[in-house]
Amino acid sequence: MSFAASLPKTDRALWSRATKHPFFEAIGDGTLPIDAFNVSISQHYHLIIGLGSFTRTLAAIAPDADRAGLRVVASMLEPEYDLFRRYAQREQIDLDTEPITQCSDYLAFLNASARTDYGHGLVAYYACERSLFEAWTFARESSGFSSPYAEWLENWSSSEFERFVQWIARCLDAAVGDGCDELRDVFVGTVRRAIAFWDSFLP
Known about the structure:
The chain is an all-alpha fold. It is built from eleven helices and no strands. Helix 2 (12-19) packs parallel to helix 11, helix 8 (118-143) packs antiparallel against helix 9 and helix 8 packs antiparallel against helix 10. It is globular, with a radius of gyration of 16 Å.
């Protein structure tokens, strides 16, 4: 088993908490109030903007084999920004609100990981994106695309997003080989912050 594939097994209970989080369970079964969801969208917008900056930071320190791909990823976020802006206009959401503490802490941890070195940053990136994909896939499997949140389910549980997460996994395995306990700690730290972020949206 590759290092990337083994990472969720580092703390199986924690990974389950992240990928079957009550926030996504409520999205899936239709019990999440729209107001709570809309608050989450304004904060996810801050997170995605921050991830764009984080990806550019990773690209700057990446080996040649990964650099072009990361730059393409950073440049392709604009359609996702547009999704947020269209939804915000339709729902009258203010995207200029301040990021909550959990969002700021999440992004600070990601950026600190990238400042350590490429391997640390890539582990954090993988943890962030894989947990996001699996959590939204869990919600989609409960609700299907008939959900009022269908456009978001499609955005974050698509086959394209899955292939992107798999690409990060391949980059990670190439960069760190068998990894080490310190990198597993980065994975766990990132997942803990994802859980704290999603906890903040529960009514």
